[in-house]
Amino acid sequence: MNILTMTLGYPRIGKNREVKKALETFWSGKSDAETLLQTIRDVESTNWKTQLEAGIDRISIGDTTLYDHVLDWSVRLGLISDRFRHLTGLDQYFAMARGNDGIPALEMTKWFDTNYHYLVPEISANSSPQANFAEFLATVQRSQALIGERAMPMILSPVTLLKLSRLEGDLTAHLHNLLPLYSDLLTQLKAMGVLAVQLHEPILVTSTAPDLQTAVTTTYQQLAQVGLPIHLVTYFDDLGATYPWVMELPVAGISLDFTRGRNLDLLNQHGFPSDKQLGVGIVDARNIWKLRPEPVLSTLEAIQSITANISLHPSASLQFVPYDAQRETQLPEPLRNVLSFAEQKLEEVMILADTLSGSDPDDRLAVLQTQWATFEQFNPENERVHNKLKNLTTNDFQRSLSYSLRLDQQLPLPILPTTTIGSFPQTSEVRQLRVKYKRGELTEADYQAAIDAQIAECIKLQENIGIDVLVHGEFERTDMVEYFGQQLAGFAFTEHGWVQSYGSRYVRPPIIYGDVARPQPMTVREFQVAQALTKKPVKGMLTGPVTILNWSFPRADLSRQEQAFQIALALREEVADLEAAGAQVIQIDEPALREGLPLKLERWSEYLSWAVDAFRLAAAIAQPQTQIHTHMCYCEFGDIIKDIERLDADVISIENSRSNNRTLQEVTAAGYAHQIGNGVYDIHSPVVPTTEQLVQQLQSGITNLPLRQIWVNPDCGLKTRRWEEVVPALKNMVEAAKILREEANANAK
Ligand code: GLN
Ligand code: ZN
Predict the structure, then answer these.
(1) Which end of the chain is less packed: N or C, by CB atoms within 10 Å?
(2) How confident is the model at residue 1 (pLDDT cuts 50, 70, 90)?
């Protein structure tokens, strides 16, 4: 018996980040459109060849993109807002992606629970879309020339697309407009000799899916009439309550994710229709670990006992992992050999297919087994960490005094105190310093002296401006997670492990591979340097445990909760050391706390429970006199306010300018009683806010609030801004706070 193998998408940034480089040269005007498009086509055909050579039977076609695959579908379907209509071609495309001459770009948001961000389609009430599939069809044609019948076009389903859009009016009406366009596309693909298509329908795993039964059923009934076999693809979680009716849809195959959620239970409970093929997403596309043969084989056995008609594939698009783990020659071999990036994942799919069809001559599964055993020897458990975790008590998660009692013991400050979020401009001079140090062109002493000079200037500047609580500026940090990961045991870093965050922005997430521990203090030196230069309080600056976890590739053999707690324990030691070094204020940033929320609402509370505990574990060691701050960016608080309260931070700084005070209102309306850092201006904009604007922003935001509860600060770190913008903006901010402070004091008299 031969088992079919398939892919659901592949990395599309180029093995050497060719797409980013091509985009940047194009945007800077140094190359033309044809050069850019040729780069995309080269990356694409290299990807196809890799998958062909790996032996994949059905290779997904059409996800390679100039910026974002959701934007591509908006454009193909002619879903283009009026403000972009006067533009054409690439000008229009990139204006939608990045804005242009005062025309705001489409909004960007997270793609389900991944760290990839897509551009939100905008669909107005009177939208009458006109499709243009020429470019997509040309791609399919190119793929057929290269890989023939293996080419399997992947299409974003209209229901998922609409649910992800900013929609004016009713979904059904828009769906009615879109379906003929999709039918038309399928008809053309059929005429081209395509054997089958993938329709990607990830919305089916979310909490809103049960409401979509009519829309989804109508869609597949209508599209089935074309007569081209449709393979319905889901991923990231299980089908939940939708399982029974999804099985009834008139499609040739259905793909389910067996690496997350409870699809196996659903399969056991409801069975699988004999007229369809089950696509088994069994090689985890969201992590970078090789599979462990035993659990995977037992899952496959269970699946095969229910249906024999299966195909095997990664659990989702491989865009969430880098290209090739074997390139990471700097990593110790035992670790490298258990890493699996896209190329290794393809191989794993093939190993499983061969094993199931009884023809794995080289016994590659046994090789995997040995590689894991070698890794475990190389990376033994850290008993100290495990014992500490085992012996935690509720007291370890609890500050010794409650907020109201510790408040009076904390440092005295004027009302409306001013501060910043941590980082100051990362000039090319600062970046050069770090690069030279890393290359060994600068001794440690020289490097530190140069960083200290930056700190000194930054402190002087903040003093001159009159800020109340100072920061050292974070000049020694490339990135708020990497900086800590590099100093913690249990983390590894890759050379080529880039994944797309959005558009031309790629990140290299750290890999958590072992028990996390802190060999020595990570931030104390820079804090001390800064604090020695001023009588004003300097904040110690840490990245929180949940953010470090959510922005890394986690281990697969330990729960996320345990990993978060291990990181929290390391940070807890850092908090104690900062305090011992004289820090009266310590900030623990958690911008990614909300990002970790599971797709299904019913699993939120479980996540929030341990995520908040992890923060508390890191912070609770602080003495009552130490003021603990946290910071979160661009996040809605309304539905998680109880959890934000449970963080028990003394101060939380939030975005509040872009949302026009909405965030502040949300937080205070819910009765949040601790202090709030009011992010009074948008650091993403180069525009310097005037004192009048800032006074107005503050006045309108805080009229109904006790002034004692409010801090004044920018809405995020300043590292992406230039000094010429930062200095006047902060001056105006301090001036605005002063004006309101004097007003309040006068009123009090
Ligand atoms: N302390 C960090 C900084 O200022 C916070 C960054 C963030 O919230 N993303 O850069
Ligand atoms: Zn921020």
Answers:
(1) C
(2) low
Choose one of 420, 474, 538, 595 to mutate for the ligand 1 pocket test, by most ligand atoms within 8 angstroms of C-beta.
Answer: 474
**Which residues have any ligand 1 atom within 6 Å of their CB?**
421-423, 474, 480, 541, 589, 591, 631, 633, 716-717, 719
Tell me the C-alpha distance between 247 and 50, whole Å: 33
Coil, strand or helix at 247: coil
- 638 CA → ligand 1 middle, Å: 22
Our answer to whether residue 631 is catalytic in this structure is no
Q: How many angstroms separate the most distant Cα atoms in the chain?
A: 89
> CA 5 to CA 349: how far, in whole Å?
7
CA-wise closest residue to 231 among 241, 223, 239, 242? 223
What pLDDT does 53 receive? 98
Ligand closest to CA 679:
2
- Between the CA of 341 and the centroid of ligand 2 the distance, in Å, is 30
DSSP 528-549: HHHHTT-SS-BEEEEE-HHHHH
DSSP for 98-161, written as a single string: H-BTTBPPPPEEE-TTSS-EEEPPEE-TT-------HHHHHHHHHHHHHHGGGEEEEEE-HHHH
pLDDT digits (tens, 9 = 90+) for 680-709: 999 988 889 999 999 999 998 887 788 899
Calculate mean pLDDT across residues 509-527: 98
Residue 538 forms beta bridges with which residues?
470
Residue 373 has which token pair?
């055993």
Question: What's the gap in Å between 332 CA and the centre of ligand 2?
Answer: 34
Cβ pair 302, 256 in contact under 8 A: no
What per-residue confidence (pLDDT) applies to 700? 86
CA atoms within 13 A on the CB side of 522: 27
What type of residue is 499?
V
Q: What is the mean pLDDT of residues 311-339?
A: 98
Q: What Å distances lie between residue 442 and 28, 304, 393, 409, 450, CA to CA?
A: 32, 60, 46, 44, 10
Residues 455-478: pLDDT tens digits?
Answer: 999 999 999 999 999 999 999 999
Q: Could you tell me the fold of the domain covering 417-748?
A: TIM Barrel (3.20.20)
Q: How far apart are CA 355 and CA 672, in angstroms?
A: 57
pLDDT tops 80 at residue 634: no
Q: Are 444 and 434 in contact (CB under 8 A)?
A: no
Average pLDDT over residues 183-200: 98
The catalytically annotated residue of 176, 270, 496, 684 is: 684
Domain spans of the chain? 4-285+308-319, 417-748
Please determine, looking at this structure, whether the domain spanning 4-285+308-319 carries the CATH number 3.20.20.210: yes
Q: What is the mean pLDDT of residues 622-640?
A: 92
Buried b (16+ CB within 10 A) or exposed e, 644-680: bbebbbbbbbbbbbebebebbbbbbebebebbbbbbb
Tell me how many degrees the CA angle 237-511-637 measures, rounded to the nearest 5.
55
Q: What are the φ and ψ backbone dihedral angles of 513, each rounded to 5 degrees?
A: -120, -15
More confident residue, 657 or 704: 657
d(C-alpha 612, C-alpha 609), whole Å: 6
Residues 494-512 have a mean pLDDT of: 96
Residue 477 alpha carbon, nearest atom of ligand 1: 10
